[in-house]
Amino acid sequence: MCLVLKQTAQNTYNPYSRYAVGELAQSTFAHNAAMGGAFVALKQDSTMPNFINVGNPSSYALIRLATLELGINMTFSEFKGQTASSFEKTANFAYGTLGFPVGRKGGGCFGIMPYTYVGSNTSNAIDETGIGEVNYYYQGSGGLNKIFLGYGLMPFNQRLVKFRRKTSSTPDSLKSSRHFNYLLRESFAKLLSDFALGANGNLIKGNITNNARVEYPDNTLYYNTYRDRIFSVSDVTANFGLQTAYTVDSVKSASGKRRALNDKVKFTFGYTFNLNNSLNTVYSAMAYNYRVSNGAEYIVDTVYYKEDEPASVTLPFEQGFGIGFKKGEKLNIVADYAITKWQNFHYLDNISNLKQNQRFAIGAYFVPEKYAVGSGSFFRRVNYRIGANYQTGYVQVNNTPIKSYSFSAGLGLPVGVGRLSSMVHLGATYGKMGTTENGLIMESFWRLNIGFTFSDKWFQKYRYD
After folding, report:
1. Segment 149-174 mean pLDDT
2. What pLDDT was estimated at residue 8?
3. Is residue 15 left, alpha or beta, with left meaning phi > 0 and alpha meaning psi from -120 to 50?
4. Mean pLDDT for the stretch of residues 175-195
5. pLDDT tens track for 293-318
6. What mean pLDDT value characterizes the chain?
7. Dihedral (C-alpha) 143, 146, 430, 77: value to the nearest 10 degrees?
8. Closest CA to 108 of 55, 166, 153
9. Which domains are delineated in the chain?
10. What is the DSSP annotation of 28-90?
């Protein structure tokens, strides 16, 4: 068996994008990409945000400034098969979104970003017993986009303030670690104060084309076959998220008294899930037999034809769990574990042979002094990011799962005069996907992510004396 790779697409060259609805685009922005794609428990700073976390919409509740984010990515790939290899590059629009505060307890966000890419062109030659070498050609193009509108809310953000105000007259002796009841109530108030929930409504829209050819070595005994299928999607789905945190703001000293920490320690927790609803589609399909004579193709008969038929695509259910550690505004470490049940994916009349995908991600960022001002403050405000990602893969070809892994790093560079929360995000990711075993293709890639965040107060009323 021999698998050869060819390229004709523009937004991706991934040969495995012909499966399901294509290669999934990054679900988060440049800052997350540099952190290994970890996002579930990533909480931003409400006083000076320098990113939007669209992966978990509950984080919108912390948006206190109007925040515009734009991004692009470039990918440089080497594809290796058993008998051939090639180098390809792509550049794609990654996202455009606007976040804004809504009242004192919430925030909203809307934007547009790619949902999937399709751009495969592969051939597979198999020596069939009694027939000879039969060539199979597969080609796909197109993709889906996502337009989203989300809202996040912190319904109990004043709970800890109210609790401490209510217990302000309580003697310190009753607040010590020996009084479990008080500590339990305080801990519960902390979790409630940081509790946030949110949702995104997503319009999925786009077109995908897939076709296949089977060519036999002898046209006099066997007719070649061509199949073409085009489907258009335009429907809505949703994803949801929860976040909370537990803050440690003081420690017990040797004398038994509690001492306030200069940098509060915060343990963050997150959960996300995506609906597995069906998307309405319209598809057209055609299949015919043909023969080749003197380099020209002649149709023998049409064996299948449908035009503008209604159908549906059932998305897989996905849920993610996250945990994080945040020390002041200097260090933030987050880790994700997510499961996507692709075995329940249903595409037109196809029975899914996809597998459950598991995603593991870990990332961190460090900023020496986020609120530094004055001479030399630029380098103290730079964000340093690093991360890693591993996925078991939902595509299985020739009984071989298509796994992937990657490592990433990046910088967040503050820009602008008097706008401390505006930033340029630069990230680089190196990874591998697939394998050269069993006649398959392995992709080794470098992906560069560039993002821009602009934050400011809008619609202010100025008073002049």
Report:
1. 82
2. 41
3. alpha
4. 79
5. 887 888 889 888 999 899 888 999 99
6. 86
7. 20
8. 153
9. 2-157+194-456 (2.40.160.60)
10. S-HHHHTTTT--TT----SSS-----TTSGGGGGG--SEEEEEEEEEEEEEEE-SS-EEEEEE
